[in-house]
């Protein structure tokens, strides 16, 4: 499966989510006991996903997955070349509507757009909903989701943001599995570890990321608010 984590503006958690999903997939045992072959594509010139991998290699000696940097049209062509070699590919694209993002959407199976709960942040989703509509002309099976990140642990703000997202970005199906604003997630980037690998275990953070992982990779059924959700298709 090819998963593109992108959309919206900077700092919404694209790299945090892309790197955590990559690690979780690479650690998941397959039926025969083997591991999934996973590739993480850093398609953002800022290089944060690559920094994550550097930290990870330094700490663990090996990342457990392949990491490459690709930009612009090469995101599409190289992913097409490499996709048979990997079970799964996760692409972390930059925040702006770059060529990399458009190229990734032409080859992706799933587009996952994290967003923050404030109204100004939800409004930034609309152009990406439009981008999905355009990408589907060439890639009609593209499944597109948006998910709240840095959400409130409690309160009605999340629900309001979800309702607004459904209005503003009809092509992005809202996934009712918010990732809450937690220090554990802030710590993952600098350490090169997924939240489940950190020494100090934050059970809620781990459960949130694992639930998103299981849903996006089609391991579990749709969450409560998504009963009519489309299941992500395997490659
Ligand atoms: N759920 C969360 N709780 C707390 N902090 C978070 C959470 N998600 C991300 N962060 C932190 O927010 C900052 C931005 O996250 P991240 O780099 O993943 O965003 P991004 O969308 O990839 O940014 P950019 O657009 O710059 O690539 C980082 O410091 C990260 O550790
Ligand atoms: Mg990033």
From TrEMBL:
SUPFAM superfamilies: P-loop containing nucleoside triphosphate hydrolases (SSF52540). It holds the Pfam family CbiA. Residues 3-185 form the CobQ/CobB/MinD/ParA nucleotide binding domain. PANTHER family: COBQ_COBB_MIND_PARA NUCLEOTIDE BINDING DOMAIN-CONTAINING PROTEIN (PTHR13696:SF96), P-LOOP CONTAINING NUCLEOSIDE TRIPHOSPHATE HYDROLASE (PTHR13696). The lineage of its organism: Bacteria, Bacillati, Cyanobacteriota, Cyanophyceae, Leptolyngbyales. CDD domains: ParAB_family. InterPro entries: CobQ/CobB/MinD/ParA_Nub-bd_dom, DNA_Partitioning_ATPase, P-loop_NTPase. Coiled coil: none annotated. This is Chromosome partitioning protein ParA.
